[in-house]
Write a structure and sequence with these properties.
CATH superfamily of the largest domain: Probable inorganic polyphosphate/atp-NAD kinase, domain 2
Shape: elongated
CATH class of the largest domain: Mainly Beta
CATH architecture of the largest domain: Sandwich
Distance between the termini: 40 Å
CATH topology of the largest domain: Tumour Suppressor Smad4
Strand content: 35-45%
Oligomer: single chain
Number of helices: 5
Largest sheet: 6 strands, antiparallel
Number of domains: 2
Structural class: alpha+beta
Length: 254
């Protein structure tokens, strides 16, 4: 039974009002003393919450009080503790990005949804694509490329015409963004344990940025991406609103 809850909310008025209502009923404690976190907002705020509180290893129960709520449950202030106790636990494995820049810097960041590379100026990017040390695309001319987790496959990956992946699938979606050459390459499914390395060709003339969810680094020369099971995240969902069913349903949306 969850008794010590850390409530966090986005800045929008409806989320702040819900925060006041819930804390008056259930109390509120800091993340280092809590048994679970309740996030009030939309999917963007949920991703912020996961990144900010990842070190506490606490399950997160989200309630939709924003524009998009794919990762959230419906908002009801009543019987919250019972809902959380009966919730379906869903484990998500984030991606770890290690990016090297022209200046010699290194940035490490985790991504719940995807790691994406994007051109920084008017010229298309040129990238070399390697999977587990094997060169799969010698030169990809494109606006960018992304590697998406199953939960992230319904986000930017879907907008880039990548495949929707079932939540329990053992693959990641490697999807080019506006590819020019090779003309017929539309991406690939790679094992979830694979290491994907992306090298930026001609990076002085064709600069590229890399983003892990919302964490961006510019002027990268290479990026290595791999799943990080040690950083697994647990989300809680109402049984009738479980994430696996919603991802499956997205494949039949018209």
């Amino acid at each position: 039974m969850y008794e010590r809850i850390c409530f966090v909310a986005s800045r929008i008025p409806t989320a702040q009002q819900a925060l006041e209502t819930l804390t008056s009923r259930y109390g509120n404690c800091s993340a280092d003393e809590a048994q679970a976190i309740v996030a009030l907002g939309g999917d963007g705020f949920m991703l912020q919450t996961l990144h900010r509180h990842m070190r506490f290893r606490l399950p997160v129960f989200g309630m939709k009080l924003g524009t998009v709520g794919f990762l959230m449950n419906l908002y009801h202030p009543n019987d919250l503790l019972k809902r959380m106790d009966n919730a379906v636990r869903t484990a998500l494995t984030p991606l770890k990005m290690i990016a090297h820049t022209e200046s010699g810097g290194t940035m490490q960041s985790l991504a719940v949804n995807e790691v994406s590379l994007l051109r920084q100026n008017k010229q298309a990017a040129k990238l070399k694509v390697m999977v587990d040390g094997v060169v799969r695309v010698e030169e990809l001319v494109c606006d960018g490329i992304l590697l998406a987790t199953p939960v992230g496959s319904t986000a930017y990956n879907l907008s880039a015409h990548g495949p929707i992946l079932p939540l329990n699938s053992d693959v990641l979606a490697l999807t080019p963004i506006s590819p020019f050459r090779p003309r017929r390459w539309r991406g690939a499914l790679v094992p979830k344990g694979a290491e994907v390395r992306l090298e930026v060709l001609d990076h002085y003339k064709r600069p590229v940025s890399a983003t892990a969810d919302a964490n961006e680094v510019r002027d990268v020369i290479d990026v290595t991406i791999k799943g990080s099971p040690a950083d697994n995240i647990t989300l809680l969902f109402d049984p009738e609103h479980n994430l696996e069913e919603r991802i499956l349903s997205e494949q039949f949306a018209f």
